[in-house]
Amino acid sequence: EAFLLSEFDKAMRLFKLLSILLSLCCGYVVGKECTNIPTQLSSHTFRYELLTSNNDTWKQEMFSHYHLIPTDDSAWSNLLPRKMLKEEDEHKWSMMYRKLKSSDEFNQQGGFLKEVLLQDVRLDPGSKHGQAQQTNLEYLLMLNVDSLVWSFRKTAGLPTPGEPYKGWEDPNCELRGHFVGHYMSASAQMWASTNNYTLQRKMSAVVSALSECQNKMGTGYLSAFPSEQFDRFEAIKPVWAPYYTIHKILAGLLDQHILANNKQALRMATWMVDYFYNRVQNVIAEYSIERHWLSLNEETGGMNDILYRLYTVTKNPKHLLIAHLFDKPCFLGVLAMKADDISGFHANTHIPIVIGSQMRYEITGESLYRVSDSNLYQHQYQLHPSGNSK
Ligand SMILES: *[C@@H]1O[C@H](CO)[C@@H](O)[C@H](O)[C@H]1NC(C)=O
Ligand SMILES: *[C@@H]1O[C@H](CO)[C@@H](O)[C@H](O)[C@H]1NC(C)=O
């Protein structure tokens, strides 16, 4: 890891120098290109109208300014190994991380607080919190398995009994399926907090139904929308944050494994990650790593965070590598260097990446990723115009 850090340090210095040169040449402050600049498109209501509209002229017009050509971004990524993710490099990565994995130093990093298991906490049923928990439990029990998984079955080409939910889960919404990820996380946490077996049966039924969908599709892909949305994502074409939803589903499956001991859920998550690992590998092999970084300008939720969490469970270096590939370097770079005013970045997109950065530090001990060392707290985030990014 000493090798990694010093190489990284060097890269950082070079990057900083390049950034300064670039800003001198071009006469503007670099950094802002790497963002979903808050525009009309940052409003989820507006995006929903846009994406469900049949007016292609309007769509093209709105998205043509969306993915900006980054300058600092490409300067940065030029410094990164160009053959990353190729077969021959996997060995080197494995070596590096075997060392990292077995080092006691990392396990003791930072003296973090010890987590109390949810299973070991019970709320007083008479308290406000106990009542709130009961309301939440009843809500989770109210939701219907067939409705939750409707669009997953549809996407997999399986029969679709029952009715789909509306709103975010509407069969025409490009973000459909992310609520189901939240359901798996919420129900796993509720199960750990209450040991309610009725809920356990329901959440296990959701996981099993999703497993049938994944098996039917047969590639590892699991989503309530077709993989075509990822074709658009990779081609830098208009699409609504498909990885945002994948993050929620992966988090749900991992929570089902960690909190409810569902082994099937872990196998599903791992198979899904294999699928996306191959997709990212193909983008890099066919185009470039810059192309992959460019695609990350579309919101990807907490992909880095969940992949780091998965790595802590599987200890598979492949999971660590794919996690790194979702660290948005053009953003974490400026954060780590404290070199740039990060105000103006879209909160919903970037705060999850920061959380993932802290997770990286907790796993690898790379202090550049330590959030409390960054300038994060000195800046105000630009809130989402629709008000849901606090
Ligand atoms: C489609 O969008 C364009 C650009 O905003 C607009 O000028 C045009 O009137 C729209 N067409 C329809 C049929 O709404
Ligand atoms: C789970 O909670 C619901 C709602 O409080 C309750 O009706 C049900 O009996 C509980 N199930 C079990 C197995 O305890």
Automatic annotation (TrEMBL):
UniProt entry keywords in alphabetical sequence: Signal
Residues of the Non-reducing end beta-L-arabinofuranosidase-like GH127 catalytic domain: 120-378
Record's signal peptide: 1-31
Domain of life where this protein originates: Eukaryota
Cited InterPro entries: Beta-AFase-like_GH127_cat
Pfam families for this protein: Beta-AFase-like_GH127_cat (PF07944)
Protein name, as recorded: Non-reducing end beta-L-arabinofuranosidase-like GH127 catalytic domain-containing protein
Native source species: Thlaspi arvense (Field penny-cress)
Source taxonomy: Eukaryota, Viridiplantae, Streptophyta, Embryophyta, Tracheophyta
